[in-house]
Amino acid sequence: MIPLIELTSVPEGLLEIKEARNLHTVLPHPTLLTLEGHHKEALFVTVLLHGNEDTGLFAIQKILKKYRNRPLPRSLVVFFGNVYAAKEGLRRLDGQPDYNRVWPEGEEPQSDEAHLIERVVRRVTGKPLFASIDIHNNTGKNPHYGCINRLESDFLYLASLFSRIIVYFETPKGVQSMALAKYCPAITIECGKPHVSRGIEHAAEFVDSLLHLSAFPHRGPHTKEVEVFHTVARVTIPERFSFGFADADTDIRLPEELEEDNFKELPAGTPFGWVRPGSGARFEVFDDAGRECFDDFFTMEKNEIRLAKRMMPAMITRDLKIIRQDCLCYLMERYAMPQL
Ligand SMILES: [Zn+2]
């Protein structure tokens, strides 16, 4: 069983940590920090569900420093997730399930990690919640954006306070924002690459704005103020095929500049890769129902993989390990949002 540390005051040393790798010296295990504020409906924030994504940790440090000697406008509950992977600078350790796939109704429900998260959810949802924020980074070049799992006015309003770019997704399951959506407006925020001050500032400002917001206005943002995209497919590279960028001697070669295409609407025919002749290599593409649907999104002609129709990719990275552990990218379509 994974221990869960529960604290009701900021532990000594937490605010002085400069690297997520050293967080274990203060918090040796996953930790739930509960701080009372003026409004009792708490804001729940999770950081380091992915151990290499440190922006959430530093954003929370900023908030805790700001309110060190004055009361919080609203109660705040922070979950520091995968401190073990953070120690190694990794998204997750080999052999660990992903800490953002084991929330209720997710993967590996019998794992120690799923049991840990179950305890966290029980603790956090035992009292009324105001909103929930899960803070992440990407490894590729992406704008800051918020992800929601419900197209309801409070969720859209919450997302619009972070970015005009909003991504709506239904898979993968077992992510924090989907689990918390049952209890309060919930969002995953993607704050660009880790350890960048602009991302840290932005995340901290967003958390602070939610601490100050007294109520949701019960109307969505104006459709002109936001752009909503819907993820329709997840692109992976099967374990059995090697891959690399540019002229790598691998089964699949990816275009050198592919990362530049994140959040750009790409026309049909855009090249996505080249396949070693005779290798039989290809991507695997999954829709929300988990159905393999390569042919709906890509064409393969003369060993060249191209987009079959107009699509916008997100989360393309050059990090080969992340591509293996997560995916090559998500494919999105613009969503025509009704005014709520
Ligand atoms: Zn992440």
Question: Could you describe the 3D structure shown?
Answer:
The protein has 340 residues and is of the alpha/beta class. The chain has two domains: 5-221, Zn peptidases (Aminopeptidase, 3-Layer(aba) Sandwich); 232-334, no CATH class. It has helices spanning 55-66, 83-88, 112-124, 153-160, 176-180, 197-212, 294-297, 320-325, and strands spanning 5-7, 31-35, 37-47, 72-80, 129-136, 145-148, 165-168, 186-190, 227-236, 243-245, 252-254, 271-275, 284-286, 298-301, 304-307, 312-314, 329-334. The strands form two sheets. Strands 1, 2, 3, 4, 5, 6, 7, 8, 9, 13, 16 and 17 form a twelve-stranded mixed β-sheet that branches. The mean pLDDT is 95. Residues 50, 53, 100, 136 line the site of zinc ion.
In short:
With 340 residues, the protein is α/β, with parallel strands linked by helices.
Keywords:
26% strand; alpha/beta; globular; 340 residues; Aminopeptidase; 17 strands; 2 domains
**What Rg, in angstroms, do the CA atoms define?**
20 Å
Total separate domains = 2
CATH fold description of the largest domain: Aminopeptidase
Number of helices: 8
Structural class: alpha/beta
Which regions are unreliable across 5 or more consecutive residues at pLDDT < 50?
A: none
Please tally the β strands and state the result: 17
Q: Which range best describes the helical content: under 10%, 10-25%, 25-40%, 40-55%, 55-70% or over 70%?
A: 10-25%
Instruction: Give the helices and strands as they follow along the chain.
Output: EEEHEHHEEHEHEHEEEEEHEEEHE
Report the sheet-strand fraction: 25-35%
Q: Shape, please?
A: globular
Distance between the termini: 44 Å
Query: How would you sum up the major sheet?
Result: 12 strands, mixed
Mean pLDDT: 95
Bound small molecules, which ones? zinc ion
Name of the CATH first level of the largest domain: Alpha Beta
So, CATH architecture of the largest domain? 3-Layer(aba) Sandwich
CATH superfamily of the largest domain: Zn peptidases
